[in-house]
Amino acid sequence: xxxxxxxxxxxxxxxxxxxxxxxxxxxxxxxxxxxxxxxxxxxxxxxxxxxxxxxxxxxxxxxxxxxxxxxxxxxxxxxxxxxxxxxxxxxxxxxxxxxxxxxxxxxxxxxxxxxxxxxxxxxxxxxxxxxxxxxxxxxxxxxxxxxxxxxxxxxxxxxxxxxxxxxxxxxxxxxxxxxxxxxxxxxxxxxxxxxxxxxxxxxxxxxxxxxxxxxxxxxxxxxxxxxxxxxxxxxxxxxxxxxxxxxxxxxxxxxxxxxxxxxxxxxxxxxxxxxxxxxxxxxxxxxxxxxxxxxxxxxxxxxxxxxxxxxxxxxxxxxxxxxxxxxxxxxxxxxxxxxxxxxxxxxxxxxxxxxxxxxx
Length: 360
Known about the structure:
Elements: H1 13-27, H2 34-50, H3 57-74, H4 79-103, H5 118-130, H6 140-162, H7 165-168, E1 174-178, H8 182-192, E2 198-202, H9 207-219, E3 223-227, H10 232-235, E4 241-245, E5 248-249, E6 255-258, H11 261-270, E7 275-278, E8 322-325, E9 332-335, E10 338-340, H12 345-352
Parallel strand pairs: 1-2, 1-4, 2-3, 4-7, 7-9
Antiparallel strand pairs: 5-6, 6-8, 9-10
Helix pairs in contact: 1-2, 1-3, 2-4, 2-6, 3-4, 4-6
């Protein structure tokens, strides 16, 4: 077991009230949008770390992980808070390693040659465990700096992605999109500021939001055509590019997107139309394909069959909230770091999260 690992700890009562309030705000809609949820999660973890006086790296990891477990159990379909917990855990581990490298490394002699004996490995492990004690410096201040860097990244992620719009949308192209998201709308507006293109909007599960986005884009000078999701296959042969917002990007380059996106991506693959996914880094999750079933749960059926319809009492309506897109359905991811192919997502995940924290 790693010196930074230990048995599962329950959340301390002094932190529980803060976590419960955060969960309640997300459930009640007081905190909406993935970016706002990510920022709120960072603020919560910053408060928890700030209240942990004289805590070692081992203790900080335990308390942050305990808070993350409570949040994941209470919000099983919100992946962004778990991703922020992983980012903070990675920062704690990095600070611990940096301190261990500065204070350690000379505890055993070097007279045994290039090879490491079993005795040296045991002594080195004991020395690393010793650095977790009370002599370890206060990590709260450097962790605040790490959290401030992540917060700045979150606040600038939308602007960074939208600044790349003119590189991917060219003049006189016909673009197709599905559903609605704030990032998607801002990206399309940024593209319209420098490129003259036409847009087809396929209605998502919440058609009112799709109509509202189409109206705002049309008012901004974009030529918009609104179609039903059933018409996507018929118009795809004329489309130059598909641009989608994502709910989450999973390990291996798979995507969770709004319901209806799978039909769009399948039609695009049939006609060899490239599919571009807009994915900020905070939406990258180390979950695998086998975990997707717990995330694509059913939503409110009245979006599919309104309650006023006489058939409502005679039909069993299954309305999934999200669709799962395989990596081969996506041509390119646009993140704040630039464009990445699905096969490169594993590299981004390794830079963001420690493998020990994939399972919180």
